[in-house]
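Working notes for the structural subgroup meeting. M.R. asked for a predicted model of this chain before we commit to crystallization trials. I am recording the input and output together here so anyone reviewing the notebook later can reproduce the run.

Input as submitted:
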Amino acid sequence: MFDTGITGFMLLATSLVMLMTPGLAFFYGGLAGKQNILGIMMQSFVSMGITTIMWFICGYSLCFSGDVATHSDWLFGIIGNCNKVFMNGVTLNTPYSGNAKLPEFVFMAYQMMFAIITPALITGAFMNRVTFKGYLIFLMLWQLLVYYPFVHMIWGGGILAAHGVLDFAGGIVVHATAGFAALASVIYVGKRRNPVHKPNSIPLIALGTGLLWFGWYGFNAGSALNVNAITGLAFLNTDVAASFAAITWLIIEWSLQKKPKFVGLLTGAVAGLATVTPAAGYISLPYAALIGIASGIVCYIAVDFKNRRGWDDALDVWGVHGVGGVLGTICLGIFAAKGINPDGADGLIHGGTNFFIKQVAATAGAAVYAFIFTYIMLAVINKITPVRVADHEEDKGLDEALHGESAYDEGVL
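Returned structure, recorded in token form:
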């Protein structure tokens, strides 16, 4: 009944996406100051545990049970129902509704990896300022009230899907929501006491980038949920956009600062990966290259704008993921073509004005909702337990102050 090739490929893609969360931990850990390496890495790794538990209990069901067409979900197509809590009714022989050749268990596992990494993306913005207890509450509430609804609305047969909104692998669902939630958290939590820091390990950043780039092939190509030409197209578009964005960022920074910066090259690659994500399976290869160039330029400008505004987004989550996700979703509304993917839509340059408007409106709505709700949620959490660490804990570094550990043995350095 099931296709072993498709099932095997999706298990591989699931493993690749899982690897992205440790990759993100290394990327953020390398960028962090020496006293806050473990704190920022732990925020990624703990999501692997808590999110998996939540996804098994109710997350998968709230995202992928029911649909707006049959009025079988809750709240007018905003969130799913509880029919599949604890994977109720999903057996070894249950096929995934979107592709009968794939077991639903495998689809559940694949989507779980997206749920794990999305809130972890936010953590780079408020590095070394947030209590671990406050973060754990944030991690759970943000998924329940931000991530799950947008997954259902776009990928689970909810209201945005019913209106023709597309997002191949997470421009809105992952990057726009996480990026603008990051900006809200920065504004709420406030600036670091010592906002100037140097990355503790550029090789660690490079390792993290390599793992993210590698894992992103599963992120985007796997989102085809099949093995065909669209799978290959998404794979290649991912690599091309990342490459063009990395070199574009390198050239801009080299021309402005007179030296080619390795961290800039790596940051540009991540920006390109985030930006092409929503469009990877819906556009032709030349447009992926164009998206990469646009990403390198626009995300660099966004980071510079953030710096001039004084927003202390420590690791540029908003500028890279938030702006990248928005830009990529808008580019999808411009460049998409049914001639490339019949399951997609025609973008603005192919006469799809209505589709373009829907993409812009959905992206703007997601960004605004994620920003406002995140800000309010942090204020509520702060009534329960302090969100921001004490001054002496921040000065000491969260590795020692909160976790009683240090990344390096200073005696051998």
